[in-house]
Amino acid sequence: MSATPIASSPPIPGLPSQNHPSRKRVGRKLRSRSTPYFFLLPFIVINLVFFLYPLFYATVLAFYQTNGPARRAFVGWNNFAFVLHDPDFHKALWNTTIFAVFSIGLQLPLSLGLAMLLNSKNDRFKGFFRLAIFAPNLVGQVFVGIIFSVLFAPHYGLLNRFLHELVGWGLEQQWLGNPRLVMPAIIIAAMWMYVGFNMIYFLAALQNVDQNLVEAATIDGAGPASIFWNVTVPAIAPVATFVVVTSTIGSYQLFELPYNLLQNNGAGYGPSNSGLTVVGYLYQNAFTNGDLGTGAAVGWILTFIILIISLVQIRLVGSVGSES
Amino acid sequence: MKFPYGPAPLVILIIAMITGIGLAVWIPLSRPSGYRAPDLVLATFVPEQADAYRAALPKFEKENHCKIQIELVDQQALQSRLQSALQVGADVPDMVELMYGTIGVFTKGPIQDVGFIDLTDKIKTSGLYDRLVTNRLSKWSSRGHVFALPHDVHPVMLVYRSDLVKQFGIDVNKLTTWDEFARVGREVVRRSRGPDGLPAHYMIDLPTDGNDALILLLLQDGVNVFDAAGNVAFDNEATVNVVCWYVKQIEGKTRISFPCGEGQNFAKAMIDGLCLFYLCPDWRSNRIELEIPSLAGKLSLMPLPAWKPGGLRTSTWGGCGLAFTKKCRNFDLAWKLAMYLYYDPAQLGPRFAATHILPPLKSAWNLPQFDQPDPFYGGLRLGRVYAALAPFVPEEHYTAYQTIANAKLSEAFTSASLYYQAHGDVGLRDYARAELKRCADRVRIVMHRNVFLYPPSAQVSEASGK
Fold first, then answer.
1. Which range, of A35-49, B45-59, B131-145, averages the lowest pLDDT?
2. What is the pLDDT of residues B63-120, one digit of tens each?
3. pLDDT of B195-234, one tens digit each?
4. Residue B3's closest chain A neighbor by CA?
5. Of the candidates B9, B89, B268, which has its C-beta nearest A69's C-beta?
6. Is B108:B348 a contact under the CB 8 Å cutoff?
7. A66 touches B: beta carbon within 8 Å
8. Å between A238 CA and nearest CA of chain B
9. Of B441, B407, B400, which Cα lies nearest the Cα of B210?
10. Cβ contacts of A87 on chain B, cutoff 8 Å
11. Cα A276 to the chain's mean position, in Å?
């Protein structure tokens, strides 16, 4: 209590300072208050320089056309209007949506199925299979793109050879040269890569299902299907929501896989742009055509689309989970 | 004295200081003694060229008392970094080798904004213009201004499996037009069809995506994706002819081709003789020789069949050029270096022997290396046969919209191909014509959005596409 009046009393000129201890105390207090901010400083600086400033600049850029450091022209909403009316953007959005739908519709049930198999009591080879199924995710989309471009090759590709030996069909099938087969090829490659990744989430969720509830349901005469729908699904619903949302966001950000898978195609995204995705369209505009303004506009439109879809999904899946 | 924020931050601070000081000291120390900063930096994306330049540099450096640094950078990385650096006015190398088709990206705006030195006058006043294959300059030009020196000519021929061609009784001297070539090809496919209905041999390797090969064939028929003024020029009757011919060779009953792809699939297809003929620019002849040695003595070369009797028997595929950035520290020295590396006969002879790449300097074709028979190709004098076609390679024009134009041309081609699959020949020409027009108009709309080249008053209306 006595510290406050001493600290606030004016210093007397010519006399040795009597408030040294209190100054020290104030300094210590300041230091202890500022310490967290010093620790946060690197994050704040990095965030400002590499996230907030680019975000702000991208917003500004979306309303301009630029050519080098010297020239820029304000074009208003023109970049957004162009993108929204561009048939290539519609195609990219359609392709990406098809990919997202199949990613969720095929990959996630498969991931859940594999997770349930690996969650069974017999755990002799559990670790091996877990690693084997997860391993494709370790190599990255660029690697998968290159590997699958060889696997899908007509006549000499492993997939066509296998199909030919198995059913006598498909030796000359052009997975990456036929616009109707490009998207299935991308979905197959992505499935190989991501099924194991999502499986790990489901496996973790399944291991946390309350076994007392499962036993109680069994005693009450519930069959496996009934236990799955009434016990397992509600228990894993939060994880499933997370996986659905992150898979959707990841699907809408798809770029490296089709880009590398179709790199031998001179146009870059398959015949008739059949492998063009929204981020591919962004890259094409911003970096191939050198139109950074339109690229920024595509980025904002994509952000908006992902935001809307994610909110709808969270609401839908959340309500399903709570009803269950 | 106690560190006010505790021991952990103190340790982090000490580590940061040690590594910072270490880096600051290590960089100068890691340089060899007598280190001298380079007078010029040349960036390239071709490993073989970087090696050749490095080997040739000591003589040039000694004669000119200078130091040159060659930087090898992946092509895509080089292009995107250069593009970004020029966009923001950051540091760039003094000289840069560019890949064909990319010059347009750098010449997107007004001529005065281009980040490279305009070489038009220099090429003329130095007398270089008369010594080069002038058609190659168009590849590195924009609106009549030349921004890079051509490294090569890249005439295209057909390489063929001479053993199999002999087996089928084909006289390559009679394959003078593409129609005749296709007729013979149908016979080859018919004769080699197995019990499962699949042919063991096709006549030619043609991709089905309508890109490099289609563009090469269009160039042979005098069609450029863009004209010299930078206008879209692929929606015309000549393109309709080539597209219709092409789709009939890759689809349906008349099919004579197989898409062998690149790399190991291409090599395996050649070894198996899956196709008899393959498009072969000069650079590919060397790659085949290096990568498929087992085919020694089984291959030969012939000029492309023409579109019309007596027509052009070659085209062009690929290329790179040397540009001088506006930040070049010593243009005179850089020009001297370019003349030494690109057009010095003492360099070009051995380089042709090592790479088979034909230089655009016409006088170099008289060097002894260009007369050497190549046993791999049955003793053919490769330099001589490619040089005979080199003066006739067609002009090429590129703009910043090359990628989208290629993609749209490919789209029209794929649509025509799907139409042919579904409906056959009936109505194919009209359909291909309409698709080419639609796709070309789309490119025009995208191009006319460029307010720096097309002021808003001149902008195209989306509806008319004009």
1. A35-49
2. 999 999 999 999 989 988 998 888 888 899 999 999 998 898 888 888 888 999 999 9
3. 888 899 999 999 988 788 999 999 999 999 999 888 999 9
4. A31
5. B89
6. no
7. yes
8. 38
9. B407
10. 442
11. 18
